[in-house]
Specification:
By secondary structure, the chain is α/β, with parallel strands linked by helices. The protein contains 9 helices and 11 strands. The strands form 4 sheets. A 5-stranded parallel beta sheet has the order 1-4-5-7-11, sandwiched between helices. Helix 3 packs parallel to helix 4, helix 5 crosses helix 6 and helix 6 packs antiparallel against helix 7. The longest helix has 38 residues. Pfam families: SDH_protease. InterPro entries: ClpP/crotonase-like_dom_sf, Pept_S49_ser-pept_pro. This is ClpP class periplasmic serine protease.
Amino acid sequence: MNFSFFDLFWVFLFLSSLQPVWQRRQMEARRIRALQEFERGRNSRVILLIHRQESLSLLGIPISRYISIEDSEQVLRAIRLTPPNVPIDLILHTPGGLVLATEQIARALIRHPSKVTVFIPHYAMSGGTMLALASDEIIMDANAVLGPVDPQLGNFPAASIIKVVEDKPIGDIDDQTLIMADLSRKAIAQVQRFVRTLLKDDIPKQKIAPENVEKIIDALTTGRVTHDYPVTVEEATEMGLPITVGLPRSIYNLMELYPQPQGGRPSVQYIPMPYGDRRPSLPSPQGRPLPDPAE
């Protein structure tokens, strides 16, 4: 059978169209194998909640991912499928998301009878921090961060709206701002009540010392810092949160299987190997000012 150039061209196009599908299936198979290996090592149910905060570009429309109702449906189903005597390991990488979805997941976590452990390789801000507070142990990379959980009304922190009403005479404040301030007080009270519920969780055992509960609530919910303030490992430990520093290598390997889709050149690039004893030599210090090359 003879093939013409155009026959080969169409075969090439057909195989090229199948390549992305094959690559996705290969990646999915690698993810499943990595999850199964991690679960066997810890005898637990592993749940990943990974969002990339960087915007993607789809037909010119910027897209960012966050904790959504769809996420809560999937996580709640995973928790329901977990026997009561099996621990849950939740791997978090998220900027936060919807309050309703976050609270649903957090309540399901504190109701699980066995130990719940949250792993944070990079960051878990806002709603992600709320989920971390629902766990019995938070295992973080030494450079990973949490964030405040103070409520936001639209583009404004609830605490800042209340401060405006407190600092200005009532006659100088418009009705909309007064309404926003009323909603802000309610939002802060609701968040504080929910965080208190999470911190007082004693299943399977008490995780937060009673004397630290109100201190943690005050630090995370009252708007003392901006909403994107990074709460470091040291600061979280000082608050009294159950922090353990040091992630297993398998967590980092899992994260590499969920890369940020790239468009154009990479913004970060390096040689992906440890140097060990083959470290590149550093240039000898020249002092200041540097000598003029023209001399």
